[in-house]
Amino acid sequence: MIRVHDALANLLLVLPKNIFPFLVQDFAQIVDELGPKRGASLSARFEKTLHDLRRSIRSGLQVLNVKIFDYTSEVVPQGGGIHEITKYLLKYILSLLDNGRSLKIILVGDEQDGKVAMETLQDIVATLISHLEIMLEKESQRYKDAGLKQMFMVNNVNFVLHQVEGSKIRYLLGDDWVLKHQDQMKDHISSFINISWESVMYCFHVKTNKIPIFSNLPTLQIFNLQFEKTYWTQKTWKVENPLLRSNMRKSVSEKLVQAYSTYLEKHKNKAPKLMKYTPEDLEKLLSDLFEG
User: Fold this and answer.
1) C-beta of residue 290 within 8 angstroms of C-beta of residue 238
2) Rounded CA gap, 193 and 188, in Å?
3) If we measure between CA atoms, which residue out of 189, 161, 66, 49 comes closest to residue 110?
4) Alpha helix locations (H) across 71-197?
5) Where do the Exocyst complex subunit Exo70 C-terminal domain residues begin and end (predicted)?
6) pLDDT tens digits for 138-194?
7) Counting CB atoms within 10 angstroms of each CB, which of 131, 180, 220, 252 has the fewest?
8) Is the pTM for the entire model greater than 0.85?
9) Which of 119, 69, 121 is nearest to 94 (CA)?
């Protein structure tokens, strides 16, 4: 039992640098077994160590939250990919939940400090993710291309959502949290398409002589120029999740090909002379997007 106390005391030396790797799953069992057996002297030493450990973990969580909130990287992920902090934090949270019972025992309210009981594990996880989302929003502003900003948010929000949906985090945060973030994903995807393909779609809705730079060009020539510029740019952007990549290609294709086909139908007498791409050509090209 003394060795248990000494081991806990030694753990304080590494906090908050490595806060939770030591929370082995049998820690709760050790506490349960020690509870009724330890003498007054050992009990006092054990409770003091537990108290110090509790304060160190609280402090470590506060430090982590501040670091995430204030984080600024030197280089943002190329092509709007998943941020390393996003991957790290979700792995970290899963580690917390793997040792949830031990953590709850350690973080039980400290009456000696006269404080209210430590926030629940749900609050801890929700706060960490909330601060991550704020950090990601700030990081997205570092991209010069407005479409790439949305691509970055799509990739990172989807990664968080996917990790939550496929793990015990879902049961901790609840269905309302999941539904809210599913709606956020739809909004980010919609914003991405509207922003990044706006210049391509624009020529179908506005008379081209109202756009000075294209005043002497037919609509289809403008479309070809704008499409190729956007297409080759987005060929270098990467959507890492295969299902998300497929869905985004489909969303872009449905919107663009439909508008293109409608224009060709309305101008079928003149369009063939200037048509560089068939609707099928566009569908094939768009199926190669977002590979990075």
Assistant:
1) yes
2) 9
3) 49
4) 84-98, 100-106, 121-140, 146-165, 169-173, 175-196
5) 31-288
6) 999 999 999 999 999 999 999 999 999 999 999 889 999 999 999 999 999 999 999
7) 180
8) no
9) 121
